[in-house]
What we know:
membrane; 68% helix; mainly alpha
Amino acid sequence: xxxAEFRRELDRRLDIxxxxxxxDPARAxxxxxxxxxxxxxSLVLIIAMLAWGYPW
Length: 56
């Protein structure tokens, strides 16, 4: 793939994503419960990492 062809494909994909009517199917079915679990797990992980690295 040459540079011009790569640029055309990139521009085509960016035009699709930037379209205001674009519906992203990857984010269509993310339930709030899973997002809450992800946030809680991230918080626990961050606290554990801080506690592990904190000089006592």
